Amino acid sequence: MLRNEFIITNNSAMSLFSIPSNKRFVYYNTDSLIRKDPLIKSISLLQTFLQKCNFKEDEDDLEDLRPFKGFGKPLLQCNTEHKQHMANETHRQKRNFMDLLMDHVDEALEMGFDDSSTKFKGKNHFMILSTKEWYDTFKMLHKIFIENPDNPKFEANDLDYKSYLENFNKIMDIDDEFFNACCDIGLQKALAMYNNPALTHYSNAVHKKLVDEAVTLYMKYARGTRTAVNENKLREMCERCWRNGKQQCEVNSLRGNPCILPKHIVKELSEHSSAHVFISTCNCGRTQGRREDPYTIRHANYEFYQYMANNCNLCAKVKQVHFPVFEPSINDYRAAEFEIAFPKLSIQDSINLDQDHNLPSPKSVASDECSQPLTASQGTHTNLSLVSTDELNKIDVDADIPSSDESLNELIIQVKDKNTQKAEDKERSIYRQPSTTEYLPGMVHTQTPPGLLPRFPSWSLVCVGPSSVYSHNTGLLEHFQSGFLSGANFLLPWDVHVRLEHSASWAYEKTRIRKMGEVHILKIFVGCEYECPRGHRFMMSSADKILRGGSGILRDSGSKVVYNNMPLYFPCPCRSHKADVAQLMRVHVVTPKAPVNVILDPKVRTGERDYVFTMGMPNPPRLTQSAYWILRLPYTYQGDEGPITPPNEITTINALSYGCLLAGMFGVSETELDD
User: Where is the composition biased (Polar residues) (predicted)?
Assistant: First the structure.
């Protein structure tokens, strides 16, 4: 080992050190008394006391009480212990490091060392130098080994010495050289592990995980001062390797799923793919099909349902309500930019603005307090919309009339005279013409500037047949509405008491309104349908309860759905451990045979950005009597800032916080009569 590190050489005259031949020059101390550690002795003594089961004095304690060693013991045993002790003392005296050292010193001063392996051997004698000679020698060595290497301007004339100076750190720092070699080995192994040829491309999360694993492997080999430098180098190399052909696209879809394709440049967002496939139902609810994870609002709310309509026998026959869309008048039309011109209002400001706009004067509010102006339909003789339960109770308290289930569902249709009706029709006909040069990039909501229309409808309203297609005894059958869970395929009955009130009685007190007019009882069936990504469909019996069989449906169970906010998302019961998030997709309405029209004015509020989305129609649609109507809600909602991603997990407790269908979407109007 000494020769390998060039501490000694074959020629002792050229070596810094020399050792005698055929003599021991390593001393190993085996004496436990010399090497004993007082701390270890104290710990051993403590363990000895802890291991005693009682406080009885043992042999060692009795030995300490003897006046002299061997007192009270047999003579033979005492002699044996004495001889063993003397032998240890003799061995310790014979084997001494100073004796080994003095043997080498005496030989060096008297005879010299003969450890050369050269052809011409000779003895080298040592001599004791004076202090001045020692000083001059080490001064020269200090200049050669320390001063000159630290001086960057020093130039050596001797080639060997010049080479020595250039490789000074490499020669002197042998441990650093060894540690650098270890770091290089660890760096190569870590990079090889990261650059796995089996992984063609992967996401940023996988990339970070692989980098951490590579760094962990590198740290098992890395030692020395260059550990941190090589770690940063490894991270940079992994980052470069990932970005040069192994980076995943990762553009999120409208449902929040990243694209799994390699990073690519696309002209259309539809070129992305997250590999997620969902099961959805067509507009009429009869046919189910597979749909890819959408990346555009057009594909999510329009193109998929157009494709399903071409493959569904019923969709081609149903009666559809056409929604207003953008119709360009020029070729270079563009998307509207209105974020600066029309700042976003809060929900309360929006409600106050709508109330100020729709209520012309405080006097008219007092006379028309029992109805809301949300479902006013143009061209009808009468109109009315339902109010919430709290507002109806408030009216009953003010009128000092006891509340009941019948009064809760009682509607008062105020028949206006011909002149009043014409005046209101003329006022409603003044509607701002939609823009033909700018379209709405998102969806229509309550804060959308007037006159902007989307390029395609996100809603669908179809009549799938007469009211006789639904039987409350059997519910929705599979051949008519596919994908419903067992027991959750029934609509809820809603009994509405309609009272006809003429304009002559408007000036009377509210207590007399309920005593006048003719009462009609309307039988309406309603249902809020939810659909999960697996294609499972179910109805809700209330805002926090799934419908469980037709036998549990009581009379007028639909009031719980009509007069309450229904959550936009709800956990699907198809899975027990981790429920899929089902979304409110359809509203089923079976209109009565009476000569009235049911009015639909749905408003969907999202919980994340507080948007209130509407159908965007100037007048709410009126559903014909004795028919089965299905309102399909948007699959994805998009505001001014972009799409709104649905939640990944949801519970029955926090369902309403992610969005809801606002109560008060239903209204009743008298059937339009021909003049």
Answer: 369-382
